[in-house]
Specification:
4 strands; globular; 30% strand; 17% helix; alpha+beta; 115 residues; 4-stranded antiparallel beta sheet
Length: 115
């Protein structure tokens, strides 16, 4: 997310809860399929993470403990309550872009795969 509004700047729309309420899902098109995701957390943070699990270290098959650790941290730090709570083994996708609320800031949109 460049400060000039290019490269992932549209993620910033999710800072507004009203925008989220109108757009709680998004599609991701891969080379082989169309996927649908439901957003469950929107938050501001910074890197490196100092107050919780480092989201960027979680990928692939997670244990239930690891899954719940990252999921709960994302929900607890969300800037608003989406009332969506992923279950273990539901795929989670975290979209991360630069943010300017602090040095090394990041804005995250976390979603669970529904299709």
């Amino acid at each position: 997310n460049m400060s000039n509004g290019t490269m992932f700047s549209n993620l910033d729309y999710y800072k507004d809860e009203e925008f989220y309420r109108k757009n709680p899902r998004f599609n991701l098109t891969t080379i082989t399929e169309e996927r649908e995701y439901e957003i469950f957390s929107v938050l501001k943070t910074k890197v490196p993470i100092e107050d919780g699990p480092a989201f960027y270290n979680y990928s692939g098959k997670l244990t239930e403990e690891e899954y719940n650790e990252i999921k709960n941290w994302l929900i607890e730090n969300s800037i608003y309550n989406t009332e969506v709570n992923p279950s273990y083994n539901e795929q989670i996708l975290i979209l991360s872009t630069c943010a300017y609320h602090t040095d090394d800031g990041r804005f995250l949109v976390a979603a669970r795969r529904v299709k």
